[in-house]
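quick one before i forget lol
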Amino acid sequence: MMKNLVTAILMTLVTTVLLGLIYPLAVTGIAQVIFPDKANGSLIKRDDGTVVGSRLIGQPFSSPGYFRSRPSAAGANGYNADAPGNSYTGSSGSNYGPT
């Protein structure tokens, strides 16, 4: 019984170190060597080197009224319920109610 417990604890520690530390560090290191421009997430940097976001996430907002963008599956311009010819049947929420 005690032998099984020791074996279980050892296997837990070994697999935790192997799969939780060594493997992720090895994959990250290989990615940094092979794909240095893509391994860090396509970051957007200011002129001074400050990271301000990622090219792969969010909508492109140009108005200064927006603080941060948000992830969206509605395309680059998002869903516009007020677009000409739109029958207001989109799947996004709106503030339109009965009048």
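fyi The chain has a mean pLDDT of 78.
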